[in-house]
Specification:
two-stranded parallel ribbon, 72% helix
């Protein structure tokens, strides 16, 4: 019996194991960069709206670092193996999209679009869920990142009052309500997305409570 077939199979296993280790290391570095980015962005919660330029100046280079880490990861992935290893980095993509979503809101007071994700992170969002020929971010990952914005907004509304920026919660509430209405148009089939969408109402409620307290105290009309 020719045992060469088993030798060849072991070579294939060794190559896959080596690739797995390389992807694991790339994702570890990517997660590290995302954590640093989240720490930098969290400073926005202790500043007034007029001071957030300092945070934005600090986060932009960090987003560039994250973009570079994604490029390193993408070089390891072929289209045929994309979904085989996809679970290894999907949470990192969600976190990176969340960083971009919060950054775009702080800078422009609007929703980060798939085009913003491409511009800042360097890869397209596969909005049509079509077959892929290159490394992409999935539509679900983009939506997860966008949903994460609600918790940042509810926290921002509370902290804006703490720093004396009592007008800001009204702006946050108007934006969050409009964004929530947009999500209500989606018929979400993904269970994880559906569960996270259902939790949005608690963030909306917290923002509304901040506005109510401000009105009761006569600080806003």
């Amino acid at each position: 019996m020719d045992i060469q077939v088993f030798v060849d199979l072991q070579d294939t296993f060794d190559q896959e194991s080596s690739l797995f280790d390389c992807i694991k290391e790339a994702v570890r570095e990517l997660n590290k960069m995302c954590r640093i980015g989240a720490a930098k962005l969290s400073k926005a919660h202790s500043m007034t709206q007029s001071q957030t330029g300092e945070v934005l100046a600090d986060i932009r280079p960090q987003i560039d670092n994250i973009k570079q880490k994604f490029s390193t990861l993408a070089e390891l992935i072929k289209p045929v193996t994309f979904y085989k290893y996809h679970d290894m980095w999907t949470f990192a993509v969600q976190n990176a999209c969340a960083l971009v979503a919060f950054t775009v809101y702080l800078e422009h007071s609007r929703l980060a679009t798939p085009e913003d994700i491409h511009e800042l992170l360097g890869f397209n969002v596969n909005t049509t869920n079509s077959d892929i020929s290159e490394f992409v971010f999935t539509l679900e990952e983009y939506l997860h990142g966008t949903i994460s914005l609600f918790s940042e907004l509810s926290r921002l509304a509370v902290n804006a009052v703490i720093v004396g920026d009592v007008k800001r919660p009204q702006e946050i509430s108007a934006f969050a309500s409009e964004l929530y209405a947009g999500f209500q148009l989606l018929n979400l089939k993904n269970d994880a997305l559906r569960r996270r969408f259902d939790s949005i109402k608690y963030d909306i409620k917290k923002i509304e409570e901040v506005q109510y307290d401000l009105r009761v105290r006569g600080l806003i009309s």
